């Protein structure tokens, strides 16, 4: 398989998860996912993770996946593995996209749980956790619910090289999305520089 296709495959298939995690802030606010509860004297997730942001992030990610399928369908992209990579039809693809986007957001929630246990404040930088939480969550959840799809499209036949590429470029995507969110008033942290304010919750 052409090396460019192999390297671009992971980005194409995980892009919905990346966008769901980054744009959940647009629907954020409302009821916290932990309902304000604490565990061992510390909040489980904190106010930064809300149910409204969680479901909005999933919806946005599914929309992005459908948009990718549409671009292939009209011939703007020539992408053939497994019919756009997600399924033969939009209905077939929806459950997989929901799993990928849910995994990304749950990975972010787990990161918040770990940061609370470590006594880190909301919005405090944790580069490795902040960069790869969605990636690990989306990959693990897809392996649990769609193991054949994940193995065939993300691991075997040198597709693992695409995952390595993502590991390298994810920090740059993270900084770019933070900058965009900051410029649009949805983030209080431009790039990786903390301004001393809390992030908008998702």
Task: Write out key terms for the chains shown.
6 helices; globular; two-stranded antiparallel sheet; 2% strand; mainly alpha; 202 residues; 60% helix
Describe this structure in words.
- This protein is an all-alpha fold and 202 residues long.
- It has one domain (3-183).
- The protein has 6 helices and 2 strands.
- The protein has helices at residues 3-22, 51-73, 90-117, 127-145, 147-154, 160-183, and strands at residues 38-39, 42-43.
- A two-stranded antiparallel sheet has the order 1-2.
- A hairpin with a 2-residue loop joins strand 1 and strand 2 (42-43).
- Helix 1 (3-22) runs antiparallel to helix 2 (51-73).
- It starts with a helix and ends in a 19-residue tail after the last helix.
- The model is unreliable at 190-198 (pLDDT under 50).
């Amino acid at each position: 398989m052409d090396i460019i296709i192999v390297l671009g495959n992971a980005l194409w298939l995980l892009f919905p998860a990346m966008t769901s995690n980054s744009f959940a802030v647009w629907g954020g606010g409302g009821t916290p996912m932990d309902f304000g509860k604490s565990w061992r004297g510390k909040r489980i997730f904190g106010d930064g993770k809300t149910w409204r942001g969680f479901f909005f992030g999933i919806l946005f990610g599914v929309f992005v996946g459908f948009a990718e399928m549409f671009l292939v369908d009209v011939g703007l992209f020539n992408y053939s593995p497994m019919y756009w990579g997600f399924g033969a039809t939009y209905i077939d693809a929806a459950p997989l996209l929901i799993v990928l986007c849910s995994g990304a957001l749950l990975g972010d929630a787990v990161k918040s749980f770990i940061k609370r246990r470590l006594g880190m404040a909301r919005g405090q930088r944790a580069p490795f956790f902040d960069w790869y939480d969605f990636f690990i969550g989306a990959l693990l959840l897809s392996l649990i619910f769609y193991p054949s799809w994940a193995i065939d499209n993300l691991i075997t036949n040198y597709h693992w090289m695409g995952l390595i590429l993502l590991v390298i470029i994810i920090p740059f995507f993270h900084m770019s999305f933070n900058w965009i969110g900051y410029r649009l008033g949805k983030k209080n942290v431009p790039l990786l520089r903390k301004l001393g304010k809390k992030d908008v919750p998702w």
